[in-house]
Model the fold of this input.
Amino acid sequence: VATLPWVLSAGAPDRFQQSALPSGDEISRRVHARDEGRMMSRTVVMELVDREGRTRRRVTRSFRKDYPGERRTVIFFLSPTNVKGTAWLTYDYDAAGRADEQWIYLPAVRAVRRIPASERGASFLGSDFTHEDIRTEAQLPLTDYRHDVVGEERIDGRRCYVVEAVPVSTAVAKELGYGRVRQWIDAETWMSRRGLYWDVTGNPLKEVTVQDVRQVQGIWTAYRFEATTHRTGHRTILQVSDVEYPEALDDVYFTERGLRRGL
Amino acid sequence: VGGPRTVAAAWILMSASAVAAQDPVPVRSPERIEANTVITIEFAGWPQRDTTRQKFELVVEPELRISLPFQLKLTASGRARADAFDSIEPGDPPLAGLSRATRPVRLGDRVELELRELQLQRTVRQGVLTLGKQQVVWGRSDSLRVLDVVNPQDFREFILEDLADSRIPLWMANVEVPVRGFVVQVLWIPDTSAHRVPPPGAPFAFTAAALRPGPPPPFQGTITLDRPHRPFVDADAGVRLARSWKGWDVTANYLYHYDDRPIISTTSPLTMDPTTPTLTAAFRRSHVAGASFASAYGPVALRGEIAATLDQFLPAKDPLSMAPVRTPVIAYVFGCDWLAPGQLLLSAQVFQDRATRNTSRLIRRPVDTTVTLLARRAFRRDTMTTQLMWLHGTGFRDGIVRPQVTLELRDDLRAWVGVDLFYGPPDGLFGQFTQNDRLVAGLQIGM
Done:
């Protein structure tokens, strides 16, 4: 019963203007070409809420910097106390076939560890987002999906293209944990405003909404993400604050000694 | 003899001068004060057997972090431990192996207060200078240490405590700076503290012949510890070069230090006359050279390290001579971590420790091999973690099995229960503690 409105709204995109719509691939390219700033820092509060309303809360401060051919991201955990001081560093390479590199600093062992890559479709820290969702900020990689535009709709008064994305192969679908994704892409900001996800067997899996989009230093920035898993009713809310797109960011943040030093 | 110490001290002084001369980097965290405290209550032992109740302790660990102007950061942390049983280290534990500046304060037999860390840190461009009491971790292994030799270790609970809790922080100067593609770390350690070893009669006192710090029973005499204490002359010094090379994180390490295990030696044969012996246990200088590597390929991470101790003094077979055997020792470990489907972490390590000279005179085996296996998986959205750890020595066929379940009850409230089960003959590293099987249950609150 809880999923009925979601199924109805997902099944009826406005198709009458389809001939004037850009292609799914074109929209996807625009999404990936969106200005995200060469550097960024932000605070994220992650709330995990179960069906009974019990809430767990994690606070992080993260930094991102683009280098030639790679993107480096570091996340420092600020609370709760049992994860405070943990820091997670990722080098994400542009080159196809070059695997990402990851390190974690665990205060419990006072050491930085090289860590194996998590499954892309595995839950990120017990949340309703996967590692891949977090890494791509819910963008759907061009190499993993075939994108088709199926119409346009308005969300919160904003014109959005409705794009249906299907993994390029069964193997990729299993890896990502999604059999199909439908996204509502804002025609002005080229950001996803809403996404519906089906699992590999075709059952509705979860919904992701993106709210409170603002311009910061001329860059469109989302301040709230919410994911709800339908089967369990579990929700994850990412509340973003203190966003900056600085002109300079200390390289030491993105090093092992930066992880040990912390904030 | 003073070369490595002098070079380390000079390097750190130069770096400190450079730090003082630098302009602050513009994008840094603001000035702020953070304070938090972790309170842990833990029981260990078998509830139905009075003689094996090891501890029921309350541990309070406050931490304070202050960000100061000019890129300075001050971190201070302490630990107060109160134990209802006074069994882990019965009575007044010997602390002579620790320097006065590092030694904890004892309030009676059951309460101990300790300054764990007090460090002032300054970032300068790409480098970090840290002065004060701190832990420095070299190496990449879990549970057992190969290259992680900078800080001594507290063996009050053998190796069952987390390494971060059992390492003894030392007063030192520590600078890390990038130089021509390498990150160079230089350490100067005037704190001459050594391992803290449980006294005879404690549950985890070493009794295996190769590990026992003193003569075998029926020795009734006393052993006085001759610990080096001159901050400059007796200081340790170390350097580490680190870089990334074709996807591998590699380091080369060197430490000139006093071995943290004292050696008892006499010039005349030891008689077993209980009226005679007052023996002296002394620490010996040693050079440790080593290297480490780590990389990851998809769901698999590989790591390893090697440490060669050029002059190690080890107990001899002949209990009457007490003359230690001098030999180089090479230790190494190779580890593999696999994040299997379902986010199941499987981790395996093989440690080997090899004495290379005068091996026929050693009590210990010339080659010791230990294998460790770890399986860990989180359930219920990471609120429940199950873990099974197994350490096995192939020489004595002894080991320890440690299953544990941890529950995250609330954001800042964790509870765990597990058992530590030893097996093997009494001369093995683990087998010597077969009387110490224990149930462990704990609760931790963060504030």
